[in-house]
Amino acid sequence: MTAAAISLRGVSKRYGAQQALTEIDLEIAEGEFFCLLGPSGCGKTTTLNLIGGFVAPTTGEILIREARVDRLPPHRRPVNTVFQSYALFPHMNVRDNVAFGLKMARVPKQEAGSRIGEALALVGLDQHGDRLPGQLSGGQQQRVAVARALVNRPAVLLLDEPLGALDLKLRKRLQVELAQIHRDVGTTFVYVTHDQEEAMAMATRIAVMNEGRVEQVGLPGEIYNRPRSRFVADFIGESNFLEGGSSNGSVLMIRPESVRISTEPRDGLRGRILQTSFLGNQTRVAVACEGVDAPVLASLFGRDQAGERDLKPDQEVTLWWEPDDAVLLPESHSPQEET
Fold first, then answer.
1. Tell me: the pLDDT tens digits for 164-192?
2. Host H or E run for residue 134
3. Co-location of 106 and 204 in the same domain
4. Which residues partner with 186 through β-bridges?
5. Residue 271 domain-assigned?
6. How many alpha carbons fall within 13 Å on the CB side of residue 214?
7. Each residue of 286-315: pLDDT tens digit?
8. Total of domains in the chain
9. Do 227 and 257 fall into the same domain?
10. Residue 283: is its pLDDT beyond 80?
11. pTM as predicted
12. What is the DSSP string of 62-109?
């Protein structure tokens, strides 16, 4: 990993009797698109606010580019934040919104003009500088907020669920645009979301959080294919859990796309089909298996999907999978084990 843009060392946050964030150690490398991912109340926004200086840590140190910042107010930290609400000034046009931070920093007019033009071009709004925010779509307003944050050339850009207010189709398009902007500018992005697909689509690394703890940090593929806890496996994508596989209470996890179905006798897990569902790009099959509480799900794609369309409810089948596709998970997990 390259030099750390952000280091959190033993950082925690308590509000009275409530422990919002248990002590965490986290390093985010220079130039990463790093996602803090988890359900509501897991501590991801608290972590972002600690980095941004909007709340003070109860314990620990926060460093940005090796300089300690946890005792500095937000305006003295080399960070900018993009919020879900965008927080644009409605009476100012796009150019003036983007220019606001430069004026506060007293950047010379000629340099400011050049930087504003660059920022607007970066987000594809160089032809919209004279428009008011109310004349823009939600996606365009979001891009103005990103341009305004980037024009000050911060060391770190913090993004607090900035796509949460947009419809699904626009969100997916802007995920691609944000990832491209990140590649173009090379600034360290720290992105908060509860949407695992969004995190998987954009992040270079992901920290999965739960109840104020970091459950696992890793590349998207590592998080998905080799989760370290049942929570991570369940939160990221869909999983089948087969319990009682060993004497220590471990659980076997298999993704639906790894489950194979055979109508011929063979070694494997015997079961009876409950339902088949054609979902366009896949056929989903739910199978009731003896000794397994929940139906086992199998996702069939491509050739497998075409070959198994004759599967019917109540049909007896055998389920199997490659050994490398199964992950043995402990019932309990010690957090803070980083990849």
1. 878 888 889 889 989 999 998 999 999 99
2. none
3. yes
4. none
5. yes
6. 23
7. 999 988 989 999 999 876 655 555 788 999
8. 2
9. no
10. yes
11. 0.88
12. EEETTEE-TTS-GGGSSEEEE-TT----TTS-HHHHHHHHHHHTT--H
